[in-house]
Specification:
The protein has 3 domains: 98 residues, conserved putative lor/sdh protein from methanococcus maripaludis s2 fold; 81 residues, Elongation Factor Tu (Ef-tu), domain 3, CATH 2.40.30.170; 124 residues. By secondary structure, it is of the alpha+beta class. 35% of the residues lie in helices and 34% in strands. A hairpin with a 2-residue loop joins strand 14 and strand 15.
């Protein structure tokens, strides 16, 4: 008798199918929950610049743009206003100390000199006349005193004679008293004449002193005015090159204080650079810089700081610490590297194009096998012309990509091939 065989619900084939499906679901779920969905980009390794994070001696140096200027510049200003009458030199010529450059004409100033000369002549004549008058008064006084001395002697003789005659009772007392009064009167007249002469002499001396003082002031003023006339000729105040001249045609009117020209003393050169105002607190006299010229390295040091800020920049002057490069010329643009601190041991990475895209906030770090680079946040500190100082995010010995990130977009990882 046949027996009915029950069909098995879980056959090996069915179990295998369901197991495969379950594994697939688990795989998809795991991938969904724990899979790496970060964006990736394939990059050819030979096109990259890979640098090693290194601890080394670091000194912050910033590149600056500077211009070569003469060690000394002398400006020629018009001390007196006037009309350009003659031009003796042209811009670009070499001049020596004292050489005339431009002569101005000022008619009013010349008339002023003539008036002062006339006033001085009048004052001089008045002083001379006063002195002559004083001399005449002295002579008159001597004559007057001589007359008084004669009268005194004569009246004294009469008085003495009358005194003897009175004692012998030859004359009356009235005659005696009259002769005595005449004698006393002549003595008093002499005393008054002397006192009057002293007073007149004092007054005359005061007047002479005043006239002499006035004459001296006139002479001093005339000397100053003559100096002003000499200032109409603008001369070189130093030997060098007349690099600019603001007087092209005769007949031009120049006002007092107007800049006429400039002389560059070519005994040496210095460097003038403009620096961002951000660095002003960190720049000081004596700090050094270096630049390359004709395949040689030259050292500079800051000699002067101009603290005035214009358009977000301030200027500094730098001088050569040793020899001046041969062949350097005024107006040449150079690019020194200015040191902003001393040497110290710091963690650094090489400078590269990555900074333009990241601003120093992140970088691609290469793994140990060298086939993958991952984006990582970092913090960059100071910098010089060769390195960046690393403050956070990297360890010594790690490798990073320092070339440009321009074509990487938002890729979190780079697969290096």
């Amino acid at each position: 008798m046949d027996r009915i065989i029950k069909k098995k619900k879980w056959t090996p084939k069915k179990i295998a199918i369901y197991s495969i499906a379950a594994l697939f679901v688990l795989f998809v779920g795991y991938t969904f929950l724990f899979g790496d969905y970060s964006s990736k980009l394939n990059v050819k390794k030979e096109r990259l610049t890979i640098s090693t994070v290194t601890a080394r001696e670091f000194q912050e140096r910033i590149p600056i743009t500077a211009t070569v200027i003469p060690i000394k510049t002398v400006y020629l200003d018009a001390l007196e206003g006037g009309r350009v009458d003659e031009i003796y030199a042209e811009a670009g010529e070499m001049v020596k100390l004292g050489d005339p450059i431009v002569r101005l004409e000022n008619t009013n100033l010349r008339l002023n000199v003539m008036q002062q000369q006339a006033s001085m002549l009048d004052q001089s004549n008045e002083l001379r006349n006063t002195r002559l008058k004083m001399d005449r008064q002295k002579i008159d006084l001597y004559n007057k005193l001589a007359d008084l001395d004669y009268e005194i002697k004569k009246s004294k003789r009469t008085f003495n004679g009358n005194q003897m005659l009175l004692e012998n009772k030859i004359i009356s007392r009235q005659e005696y008293e009259d002769s005595k009064d005449i004698y006393d009167y002549n003595l008093r007249k002499k005393e008054l004449a002397i006192e009057s002469a002293k007073y007149d002499s004092i007054m005359m001396a005061i007047q002479i002193d005043q006239l002499a003082g006035s004459l001296r002031r006139l002479q001093e003023n005339l000397q100053i005015t003559k100096q002003r006339l000499e200032n109409l000729t603008i001369a070189a105040t130093a030997s060098g090159q007349l690099t600019s001249l603001n007087a092209e045609y005769t007949g031009e009117i120049k006002t007092a204080g107007e800049r006429i020209g400039q002389i560059d003393v070519l005994d040496g050169f210095k460097i003038r650079a403009g620096i961002d105002e951000h660095y002003l607190p960190r720049v000081d006299i004596g700090q050094t810089a270096e630049f390359e010229f004709s395949s040689s390295l030259y050292e500079l040091k800051i000699s002067k700081i101009f603290p005035e800020i214009t358009d977000g920049r301030f200027n500094i002057d730098l001088v050569f610490t040793d020899e001046v490069p041969a062949g350097i010329r005024r107006g040449l643009t150079v690019h020194p590297r200015l040191a902003l601190g001393g040497l110290s041991e710091q963690l650094t990475i090489d400078r590269g194009g990555f900074f333009q895209e990241t601003g120093g906030q992140w970088i691609y770090v290469v793994n140990g096998s060298g086939d993958l680079a991952t984006k990582r946040d970092i913090q960059i500190g100071r910098r010089n012309t060769e390195f960046y100082e690393v403050l956070e995010g990297l360890e010594e010995g790690e490798k990073v990509i320092t070339s440009s990130y321009e074509n990487y977009g938002d890729a979190k990882k780079l697969i290096l091939k």
